[in-house]
Write a structure and sequence with these properties.
This protein is mainly alpha-helical. 77% of the residues lie in helices and 0% in strands.
Length: 453
Amino acid sequence: MKIPTKKFGVFTAIAMVVGIVIGSGVFKSAGDVLAKAGGSLTTSILAWIIGGGIVLFSSLAFSIVALKQAKKSGIIDFVENVVGEKVAYLVGWFINFVYFPILVGVLSWLAGSITNILVGSETDYTWSFAIFYFIGSYALNILGPVLAGKWQVSATAIKLVPLVLIAIVGLIVGLVTGATVESFRVPATVVNVAGTGLAAAVAVTAFAYDGWITALAITQELKDPKKNLSKALLGGALIVVFCYVIFFIGLSGVISNDEAISLAGSLDTSVLAATRLFGSFFGSVVSVLILISVLGTLNGLTLGAVRGMYQISIKGFGPAPEFFTNIGKKDQPYASGVLSFIFSALWGVIWYGNFQGYWGGFMDTSVLTIVFLYASFIIVYINILKNFTELNAFKRYVVPIIATIGALYLIYGAFISDPMMFLYFSIIVVVILAIGLLTFNPNKKIIEAKLEA
């Protein structure tokens, strides 16, 4: 098997971490975090810092595992090495039938929401635009994978621009006018959100910080990984936290706490800030850049989603592995892509029901799915504590223990935010995992024979 060349230095790796993590999440989560923090800007910033700290220690823990298991890549392989094929299969099942589909649906809605704002129609076309982006993203990634890859590179380069513009200009304007100081001094007067508190606010930041696990894919291509991987993750995490905090403070310079909470759950906060800072025309330009950022994130998630069942089946696991490992003339796993499309559509219906009041409350699947993924990470952290005896005390004990505490804190925050919705989501996930358990059927010999042929 050909081994990738060592071509990435530490600065390139840091740029990759920053580029992967920073996306649409921070634009959506700004008002949500403030709402869950009870309207306090200080508590909100503390939540962003703690959320970043959880990412930092979680990524450091995975870097330890990545360096020891050089031939492994990603959470599924790491879990398989720790507790075996069946548990790893269930983690992969969760990622492909819960995690990816939920986030694809949410990002489609976000893209539809900001497009509806840009169009400026009196009629709400958000869901029509969302369906258009949803179908378009899958069509692009299933039928035109090369074009999808080029689009991903372009979107990554563009998505940092609106974040930096709003952060810097908003901070300057807020300090000059005194609005930033006022936002720190006076919390929101009306917070119509259940389950507030620091832990609940930290749980919401998980959506904005999601994606760091993908950065571990470059381990084998990193120069001097033992020295540079932890530096890249540490440096990347610190840059992201700094950018998010400055962006959040920048928003406070032009958006009051009450306004931010009233617009929570959408991109309206960022769009309004852009319009106030840069005027109607240039504000619209910045809003278009935010839309590109959202679509870039959507494309990246869809790119991974369409390959989900294929990646499980290529290991010889699950139902009909021969069928899901078939690739077409363009080397595309069409069956895997279609299955992903169906499940993403189903989760999209659940997300739509949130806004229609179908469930008796808002089930924030965008946050819950990430929190549940962190729960699966605990298996990896325990493995470090038990088996990595050659490590020094900091790496063997401090890093995994803090990472575990962080994961548990996210779970606690999601639970207190809305216990009933947490319970409903847990039941859905358990049912999906039970189906996965029933379909677990190792067929490695069949797949190996097929690959050799």
